[in-house]
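I'm stuck. Please check this protein.
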Amino acid sequence: MECKTGQLVFEDFLRTEYSEENLLFWLACEDYRKTTSQTEITTAAKRIYTEFVQVDAPRQINIDCVTRESIRENLSQPWPNCFDRAQRLIYGLMENDCYPRFLKSEMYQALLEQAEQQ
């Protein structure tokens, strides 16, 4: 996640699997955690909820209903860590499911070859 190029290639790979919302949500949570202004926290929390968490969101992530409901309940008074549980769940999903497939993919192999040539 620290290598910007690798992150972009991983996002492209996830897009081919119709699951790029996982990485986009994880990245949005990372940005959210760095937010300091309460006004910005509230705005960002609502945006993340609307885009990724709520049922039928445009990029709905696959989390359990208890986590989803907990986030919804905390939207009126969001705090910097309110997405942590969902972010951990999504990270685990990527780590155990998507990322191993990515490492075997042609996209990743091409990235490795390119890195070796430099």
Q: What stands out?
A: The domain at 38-112 is CATH 1.10.167.10 (Regulator of G-protein Signalling 4; domain 2). The first helix runs from residue 4 to 16. The mean pLDDT is 93.
